[in-house]
Specification:
- 79% of the residues lie in helices and 0% in strands.
- By secondary structure, it is mainly alpha-helical.
- It has one domain.
Length: 183
């Protein structure tokens, strides 16, 4: 069990609130205009990337995802599809833990590749779950079935991972970085 400091909890709460509220406010508008899931992925995976980079403890992304789900359901109880993102945040947590935080966030290019890779795989998982359980067959047919919908989410994961990396590198450039144990 990972121990979370008060600063860790504050980062987790901030990332969760950011994801839950921005998703509730803007994602439905973007989806109605484009019928594409990219904004959901961008908001979610940039929030997860930032939180995991700062905290660097197993469970961080899962807690962010669970809290964002609670916020999302409080604001929009009918948005059951968000459960796909809950599972995706758990996958993101596991992937970044297995890769290793020092490896995941060890330099600009490596961070970009690792964060985008983790986001793409996790977003595809969200797309598979959403497509399998929460979309109508006619909507799925438009995008080539469940695998096509998962592919669209994977593209959104590229955006989310890239924005997450941009946030991380911007903070590093300004000299704002988490205190990492042993450094």
């Amino acid at each position: 069990m990972a121990y979370f400091s008060s600063k860790d909890i504050a980062i987790i709460a901030m990332a969760s609130a950011l994801w839950g509220v921005l998703n509730w406010l803007f994602s439905p508008i973007f989806f109605r205009m484009t019928r594409l899931p990219f904004l959901c992925d961008l908001i979610g995976f940039s929030s997860l990337s930032f939180a995991v980079w700062w905290v660097r403890k197993i469970g961080t992304a899962s807690i962010v995802g669970l809290l964002a789900t609670i916020i999302n359901f409080a604001l929009n109880p009918s948005a059951l599809h968000f459960l796909g993102f809950t599972a995706a945040s758990m996958a993101f947590d596991l992937i970044t833990y297995v890769v290793g935080y020092e490896s995941e966030f060890s330099g600009k290019v490596r961070t970009l590749i690792s964060v985008v890779g983790s986001s793409v795989v996790s977003a595809a998982i969200a797309g598979l779950i959403i497509g399998s359980f929460f979309m109508s067959p006619s909507d799925l047919a438009r995008w080539g079935g469940t695998s096509g919908w998962a592919g669209l989410h994977a593209i959104g994961g590229i955006f989310g991972g890239a924005v997450g990396t941009l946030i991380i590198e911007s903070l590093r450039l300004r000299g704002i970085a988490p205190k990492v144990a042993g450094k």
